[in-house]
Amino acid sequence: MTDQPRFLIIADGAFGPETSKTADCAIRYIPERVAAVLDGSAAGRTAQDVLGFGGSIPVVATLEAGLNLGPTALLIGIAPRGGRLPDEWRGWIATAIDRGLDIWSGLHTLIGDDAELAALARAKCVRIFDLRKAPDGIPVSNGRARLVDALVVLTVGTDCNTGKMTAQLELLHALESRGIRTRFVPTGQTGILIAGWGIAVDAVVADFVGGAAEQMVVEAAKDAEVVLVEGQGSLIHPGYSGVTLGLLHGSCPAAMILCHKVSRRLIGEYHKGTAWIGIPPLADMVRVYEEAAGWVHPSRVIGVALNTCDLSEHDAATAIERAARETGLPATDPVRFGADPLVEAIAQAAARRRAAGSATPA
Amino acid sequence: MTDQPRFLIIADGAFGPETSKTADCAIRYIPERVAAVLDGSAAGRTAQDVLGFGGSIPVVATLEAGLNLGPTALLIGIAPRGGRLPDEWRGWIATAIDRGLDIWSGLHTLIGDDAELAALARAKCVRIFDLRKAPDGIPVSNGRARLVDALVVLTVGTDCNTGKMTAQLELLHALESRGIRTRFVPTGQTGILIAGWGIAVDAVVADFVGGAAEQMVVEAAKDAEVVLVEGQGSLIHPGYSGVTLGLLHGSCPAAMILCHKVSRRLIGEYHKGTAWIGIPPLADMVRVYEEAAGWVHPSRVIGVALNTCDLSEHDAATAIERAARETGLPATDPVRFGADPLVEAIAQAAARRRAAGSATPA
């Protein structure tokens, strides 16, 4: 027996490898906690059918069918642009509360702030976990994270939704299995769901993005040799670049891993009709991140993590070779081919750091 | 008679040219609305004595002395780091409400969210204006501001507190006096206080900084040839760089004015004991801003606005000459020597834009 929740995940109309990030990551990293996925358009299939992983977790057509599978919590598993709660979901949430399920949500609109749903939850003694709810008292950042002894590694991206959290979770497991004391710093709702702590930096008041990152890095570094910070957005994304820079300057990484989805051509093209900025060559992105980091604290990109989930084996291998050649850095798809080249780069950087005994770039 | 408030401004222990930005700007731009300043450490002097402008506006030692001068509103005139309400001020605010004064505040901690003060205000029928309170429904930015016909000009800085709002207000008046239809977009609490509209972009949820800027630029551009956007922070400030980049990418300026306080050596050195990053040469800062803007939309720095308030006339003139030589751009201290060189640069950029008929960098 366990105290862990068993989730019915709402991903209605959007369950898929590119469109339901929170659902997908829960299924990849905590599948034992997933009872079913609600998506009328994919009903009758399994997670494996839809995502290529997740085994026999079923997709159901209706809330009722999902409730019949014995979940103890409802998880909002897709993040609409802007993160707000679609009106039609309120009914599902109310029904779930009425049936005694806890509610987990990563939306910007906090479920606990909805007077009606909050009152219903109190009446039914169920809990509402708003993963994006920021704690009070976050300070303004001021470079304290640059002073920690641990090697701080931030994943940075050519775009949103390229695998920045996934790369860190793969690295976490690989580094720990080598006996390197490693901590993961979750900065988004899905990372928080999986790791059980963290702050969604895109949901704090803008002045405190860096402070939230700084506070978490300083805390995580107390007990680790390597701190893996989940990256957010992209410096070249017209909607989210501010969050990315605040996180970069707040966390003061000595090292960065550049994450890229190989098939992506335009920034944010998974949001239909809104994409207009082309993704530059990877070597240019390395330069952009190293320059922007250096405004506050010097940092180096030490590896490239590619997301090749929609490519053939041959095309994926070719893309990895090309990325390594173009950047002069170790490259891999950590999910598909393992994280070894990146683990090696991090282990070497950590060893250099121990030898140098000071806070220098990796 | 007028409906405008008459302010008693709280700047206790901090009234001065570098330490009480909101108070100072109110005294510079809306002196007719200022009854007195409360600061025990400067009591008995005038605004002119303390700031070098502001005439006979008195500084008083106690709340009671200020209330005797007939204010209709209390204005929080200093912004503590992090923007939160010092506990001891709550008593002053409660007393002011009790005496029928409206409350105006630019702090991150919203006065209207304080249950006790809010209840007292309701009971006394006075209003609480939280200048940093963000409206609901701000979208994520996506470059819509790059498509407006108006010339969008953003002030950018080497640091916080360098004169980015002041430069725009000086330019606003100078451009209007030349008959150029100009609108000012306030992005911080003091600009909002003076202009009567706007959104404090550092107080919105981080994902929406760019969207707030975009929304205001699109609105302002409907009725103007030139849109002057108040800048915030600095790309190289470890605490506020995320806000700066979000504002830059959300507002999509075709032109930027670089603002610098000549006597400043370290980022944020006016916050005692926390400064550690040196301010680079101005030409480097021009390159930093043009590069970062260009990740989303190309832009050029077209002039330099220096703040020389603490320099001799001779040193100020020398600093302006040096800035012009180092950057190859027109430079002035718009408060001290007038905004003409910058007005000329903007007028030329606007004319080029009309001639080109398209959204190109200035």
Compile the SSE list and pairings.
The structure is a homodimer of 362-residue chains.
Chain A: E1 7-10, H1 21-29, E2 34-38, H2 47-51, E3 59-60, H3 63-67, E4 73-76, H4 89-98, E5 102-105, H5 115-124, E6 128-130, E7 151-157, H6 164-177, E8 182-185, H7 189-195, H8 209-221, E9 226-229, H9 241-251, E10 255-261, H10 282-294, E11 300-307, H11 313-327, E12 331-332, H12 334-337, H13 340-356
Helix pairs in contact in A: 1-7, 4-5, 8-9
Architecture overview:
The structure is a homodimer of 362-residue chains. Chain A is an alpha/beta fold and 362 residues long. Chain A has helices at residues 21-29, 47-51, 63-67, 89-98, 115-124, 164-177, 189-195, 209-221, 241-251, 282-294, 313-327, 334-337, 340-356; strands at residues 7-10, 34-38, 59-60, 73-76, 102-105, 128-130, 151-157, 182-185, 226-229, 255-261, 300-307, 331-332. In chain A, strand 5, helix 5 and strand 6 form a beta-alpha-beta unit. The model of chain A has no long low-confidence stretch (mean pLDDT 94).
